[in-house]
Amino acid sequence: MNKYYTTHKEEEKAILVCTTIPKSTTAKTVKQKIFKEHLEELEFLTQTAGAKVVDKVYQERDKIDKSLFIGKGKAEEIAEKVEDEKIDLVIFENSLSPTQIRNLEKIIKCKVIDKPALILDIFASNARTSEAKTQVELAQLQYLQARLTRQWTHLSKQLGGIGTKGPGETQIETDRRLIGTRISMLKEKLKKIEEQRKTQRQMRAGFSRIALVGYTNVGKSTLLNLLTNAGVYVENKLFATLDTSTKLLKEINGEKLPIPVLISDTVGFIRNLPHDLIESFKSTLAEVVEADILLHVVDVSSDSYDDQIQVVEDTLKDIGAETKPVIMVFNKVDKLVEVNNHDIIPGLREKYPECVFISAFKGINLSSLFDKIIDLMHAEIETLEVKIPADNPDAYKIINKIHQYAEIISTKYLTKEIKLVVKGNKNSLKKILNSLKVNKEVIKELKTGQKNNRKEMSVLI
Fold it and tell me: Omega into 22 within 30° of 0, i.e. cis?
């Protein structure tokens, strides 16, 4: 895969810059803590990309400087540090416009990038499968397309020579056209991949679906390995896994689940995740959209866990998954023990009554999580009695259709009808009724099972 925009270079030295706009009235100590958290995350990203952080700069401003973002005085101050420390790279926490980057580089005299570019570089380094590589390349090209004026200003001259006279086009216009063509090709490739994924998801229609979501590096892959012995790659770095891992889960802690479950680990979210990256990864994030239950994993030991929860919730809203049933899983509780910071737990229990506190790494309180999953799964299961007239010419097609979405517990061939008892996830059964165009008036509730709120219905087709 071509990496069109990269920051990676062995032993590059970097300065990090974080700016808050507008100035807030928050207490100084709180503001410094927030700045520190943002810069620490940016430092972790920078280290993941392979560079060494030499210095960090933060600033409050009343408004953005349109030409430089941070203002000329601060830019000149950074320029002095760059020259004194022989810095290769300045990385901004904030998203910068192409013009701001170009103007900053004129003053600072080294490469300047923003957080979205840094994230794109890390994604490019960690992409392993053809799908992930395609998604990242598309996002990189879309990011780069608006920045050709900065990257290749030396190409903006009119082409000359024999055979090139006439209206012609500038080289930069040619590059834009070539990138546009490549973007179209990649989008078409992702469409085909999405079709394949849709087929795979249809084949899984009879299963309940759980998706692990959360901020990057909160322990989702560790939890997936714990639940399924999946052997998913785990490392203490950001975006260690980009590809969705989906595993079959038949039992938890020795207890058999009501129906088989497919559980998926998804790419982590982060502040200022490039919009192009979210768009490119929509086929991967479809696992979240189609899940029946979400496990929102949170690093409760992080000072900015509340901010991280908001980032995840905003991203779920962006992809249309904000109404899913959610179990809040506060992970890394062992680190709270280490720093004697239990005070936050009562407040979180009050705010998220159905939450659980665990340590996937240390195996702390996992039984509580298992119980929550099993209870919520039982609540999502319904049992239907389906009656198909024996003279219905499509009877066996209907049975086959039902088999795709649910478990057929029993089948009775009677004189006038075929009677099926089927069990499945609510959403799956809803798809059955919609696909068979069942008249809602003929659906009558037989009884509501007291245990786990399971319902039994009678449906006439």
Answer: yes
What's the token pair of residue 315? 């991203």
The answer as to whether 348 is a domain residue is: yes
What's the predicted TM-score (pTM) here?
A: 0.73
pLDDT in tens, 384-419: 888 888 888 888 888 888 887 788 889 999 888 888
DSSP letters for 229-269: -------SSTTS--S-EEEEEEEETTEEEEEEEEEEE-PPB
Is 307 within a domain?
yes
Alpha carbon of 115 to those of 121, 197, 305: distances in Å?
10, 30, 20
CATH number at residue 430: 3.30.70
Q: pLDDT, tens digit, for every residue of 11-47?
A: 789 999 998 876 655 556 656 667 777 888 899 889 8
E strands in 302-351: 326-331
Give the count of beta carbons closer than 10 Å to the beta carbon of residue 313: 16
Task: Give the CA-trace dihedral at 363, 364, 367, 373, to 10 degrees.
Answer: -80
| 130: CB partners within 8 A, 6+ apart | none
Among the ranges 18-22, 186-190, 428-432, 449-453, which has the highest mean pLDDT value? Answer: 186-190
Q: Is 1 part of a structural domain of the chain? A: no
Answer yes or no: do 295 and 444 share one domain: no
| Measured distance CA(215)–CA(308) in Å, rounded | 6
Which 3-state string (H, E, C) describes 187-215?
A: HHHHHHHHHHHHHHHHHCCCCEEEEEEEE
| Count: domains in the chain | 4
Residue 115, in any domain of the structure: yes
Burial status of residue 130 (CB atoms within 10 A of its CB: 0-12, 13-18, 19 or more): exposed
Confidence of residue 332 (pLDDT cuts 50, 70, 90): very high
Structure tokens at 376: 């919520």
Q: Which domain holds residue 256?
A: 204-378
Give the phi and the psi of residue 147 in degrees, each rounded to 5: -115, 15
> Could you tell me the sign of the dihedral formed by the alpha carbons of 105, 87, 269, 22, in that order?
negative
Residues 40 and 174 grouped into a single domain: no
- Band (pLDDT 50/70/90 cuts) for residue 100 is very high
Indicate which CATH number applies to the domain containing 355.
3.40.50.300
Q: Are residues 261 and 324 both part of a single domain?
A: yes
Cα dihedral 348, 303, 271, 298, rounded to 10, equals -40
Which residue blocks in 50-162 are alpha helix, DSSP H? 72-85, 98-108, 115-126, 130-145, 148-151
Same domain, yes or no: 190 and 217? no
